[in-house]
Amino acid sequence: MFKKILIANRGEIACRVIKTARRMGIATVAVYSDADRDALHVEMADEAVHIGPAAASESYLVGDKIIDACKQTGAQAVHPGYGFLSERASFCEALEAEGIVFIGPKPKAIRAMGDKIESKKFANDADVSTVPGFIGVIEDGDHAEAISDEIGYPVMIKASAGGGGKGMRIAHSRSEVREGFDRARSEARNSFGDERVFIEKFIVEPRHIEIQVLADAHGNCIHLGERECSIQRRNQKVIEEAPSPFLDEKTRQAMGAQAVALAQAVDYQSAGTVEFIVDSEKNFYFLEMNTRLQVEHPVTELVTGIDLVEQMIRVAAGERLALKQDDVRMTGWAVESRLYAEDPYRNFLPSIGRLTRYRPVPEGRQGEVIVRNDTGVFEGAEISMFYDPMIAKLCTFAPTRAGAIEAMGEALDGFVVDGIEHNIPFLASLMRHPRWRDGRLTTGFIAEEYPDGFASQRPGPEEQAVLAAVALTAELLRKDRLDRFSDRLAPHEGALRRDWIVRLDDDYVEVSVDDGMASIPFEADMSIDGKRLTVTTDFRPGDAVWRGRIGNLAVTAQTRPVVNGLRVDWQGFSTVARALTPRLAELDRLMPVKVPPDTSKMLLCPMPGLVVSIAVAEGQAVKAGETLAVVEAMKMENVLRAERDATVASIKAEPGESLSVDAVIMEFE
Ligand code: ADP
Ligand code: ADP
Ligand code: MG
Q1: pLDDT band at 609; cut points 50, 70, 90
Q2: 281: Cβ contacts below 8 Å, ≥ 6 apart
Q3: What is the pTM of this model?
Q4: Sequence-separated (6 or more) residues with CB below 8 Å from residue 587
Q5: How far apart are CA 602 and CA 668, in angstroms?
Q6: Which helix (H) or strand (E) holds 278?
Q7: What pLDDT shows up at residue 643?
Q8: Per-residue pLDDT at 516
Q9: pLDDT tens across 134-174, in order?
Q10: Partners of 602 in the beta sheet?
Q11: What is the pLDDT averaged over residues 434-446?
Q12: Mean pLDDT to the nearest integer, 409-416
């Protein structure tokens, strides 16, 4: 076994690899860029080597710097994590030439599977079912149209070198092919430096289900069952689970067998993932193979009890797999949520900055539930613009799917992140979604269920009762604390005022509190909107998380002070609450409402980005759906279309200009 390994990565995955290495008694070396001097992975590792400037292309992506760091520290092997150098065959070869072991597959397998066109050919030859389509490079727009007509619509236009959901476009009819082809090609060129594009059938009502494989260097290969990753936004995974609520044992075995056959055909060793797209009839088609540890691997670890990083390290050290296919059992259910630094209310715009508060929920087992949080950040750390904006991967495990979802909802409600925008409200709202709870998924789920993006939903009467109770108890306890602090003559003996109106955004909820004291823990009977409830909580003023019971519901919510009130977040609802006396509420209702400016006659830039092109001219009449402009952000080209028929009055931006969010691009008459 190795004595020392280097982790050529950063963030949560570097920390995760270090944890296992440490448990195995292997010393660890971290590498870090200028931006990561104070990063968690650096602190966790036994040693750390600085490898250059913040830009990944000058640090984490430079193989020679990694090799130098190995030589300098005597690391015998390198774990690449995911992203960065994890799928670069040339990097494995360079390591091998120096006598350093790459903890992953051999260059041959990486090459064979690294390119989507090539890997599809390979899969075909290994009798793996692939998506029908044209397995070759598309030359130009005419070629793209001809091939698409032949395949039949809808089609998927894809970059052969693609990854991370980039360089991919659906065309539902011939008229969309040319633009899709141009966009996919230019994204491919910009993101991957390789503009080869191919076209395959778009599988309708698709589910993304992937098989985890594990192989050693002695020809043994097994699979560890599936993960379903159908909850995606723009072809990028958001929520993953294991097992899949859709597969039956027969399909699972068939997919597992094909995944193993493909892995064996490329002499695969280490952990890898064979991704399939599955249609509503349970037909499955090979998509691609990822020759690395996958972001969502923890859900497999939770249901199988197998540490994939440990297996990768053992295989790399030449050990035989100690597991046989029959030893692999999936028990219980695991769900993973990817917590990203992005603003769900503003089209998931990336958000960067300092984590002024970062209080994850406690990890570990409680009864039958396990909570696991893979993260690379801490309170006070910075989410920088240089790398993936992932804050953490929160996983829950329970005996049943419903239990795991319930636990995830609660964990999200108790997970406190401040200082940057993040997608917790969106994830929390997803956990309540009936279609998700029923497991009726397709990769179109988010686009279908949130067609206009995510907006905090207006709570119904039952949810309002919860929000009002949280806000009122927090406010009563705060007032009581203030009274005691200020050393004033006690204005009351701790007895609670009876009648309140809790304003929740624009709604007024009547609450009357029975006799009670503002003591900690708090307990009082109330009637909220006429409904009788007992409310108990151990909340203390200043706590971010409110835990307690409201009626027969266990509630975990978050409160944050805002001007003249309190923001309450719970299950994706976010509302500004104010506890008012009846007289104040009466006056409050008379206050004029501020009208937001009318932006309906403008095209606003939805994200900070670079104007690639403006497709219309002043005075031009446009039809709904017509392209108005193209804006590039985060290496994605976003086509901005007319929402309705209109005439362009004036154009306020030009190609090449970089715009901030909500900058006016054009105005309509
Ligand atoms: P997973 O299935 O593990 O989520 P993804 O395809 O979403 O895999 O990619 C995981 C990580 O690797 C992401 O951070 C993504 O940005 C990065 N990545 C994947 N493929 C590429 C690629 N070809 N080029 C650059 N980054 C990539
Ligand atoms: P990446 O390398 O970016 O992960 P994939 O080929 O794995 O690219 O595709 C990413 C996602 O795009 C899939 O999970 C799926 O949601 C969608 N997708 C890809 N190809 C198809 C297809 N032919 N039909 C339907 N959906 C597809
Ligand atoms: Mg993929």
Answers
A1: confident
A2: none
A3: 0.89
A4: none
A5: 6
A6: strand 270-278
A7: 83
A8: 73
A9: 999 999 999 999 999 999 999 999 999 998 888 999 999 99
A10: 667
A11: 97
A12: 98
The most distant pair of C-alpha atoms in the chain lies apart, rounded to whole Å, by 86
130, 168, 196, best to mutate for ligand 2 pocket (most atoms within 8 Å of CB): 168
For residue 118, what are the β-bridge partners? Answer: none
Nearest CA residue ID for atom 11, ligand 1: 83
Q: Which residue minimizes the CA distance to atom 5 of ligand 1? A: 164
pLDDT of residue 488: 63
Show the tokens assigned to 497: 């005022």
Q: Is residue 556 classed as helix, strand or coil in its secondary structure?
A: strand
Nearby residues of 289 by Cβ (< 8 Å), 6 or more positions away: 113, 119, 262, 263, 272, 273, 274, 275
- Where are the extended beta strands (E) located within 125-262? 133-134, 155-159, 168-171, 197-201, 207-215, 221-233, 236-242
List Cβ neighbours of 411 (8 Å cut-off, separation of 6 or more): 361, 371, 394, 396
Domains in the chain with CATH codes: 4-103 (3.40.50.20), 105-130+207-331 (3.30.470.20), 132-201 (3.30.1490.20), 333-448 (3.30.470.20), 461-588 (3.30.700.30), 602-668 (2.40.50.100)
Residues 415, 409: Cα–Cα separation, whole Å = 10
Q: Tokens 């686009």 identify what position? A: 447
Q: What is the pLDDT of residues 54-111, one digit of tens each?
A: 999 999 999 999 999 999 999 999 999 999 999 999 999 999 999 999 999 999 999 9
Query: 468-504, pLDDT tens digit by residue?
Result: 999 999 999 988 887 776 666 655 555 678 899 999 9
β-strands 416-418, 499-504: how paired? unpaired
| From 3-7, 374-378, 597-601, the region with the lowest mean pLDDT | 597-601
Given the residues 288, 342, 406, 421, the one annotated as active site: 288
Q: Assess whether the C-beta atom of 494 lies below 6 angstroms from ligand 2.
A: no
The answer for residues whose C-beta is within 8 angstroms of residue 350's C-beta and 6 or more apart is: 341, 342, 343, 385, 389, 607, 634
**Alpha carbon distance 577, 598 (integer Å):** 26
Residue appearing with tokens 């000058």: 58
Between CA 441 and CA 426 the distance in angstroms is 17
Closest ligand (CA of 445):
2
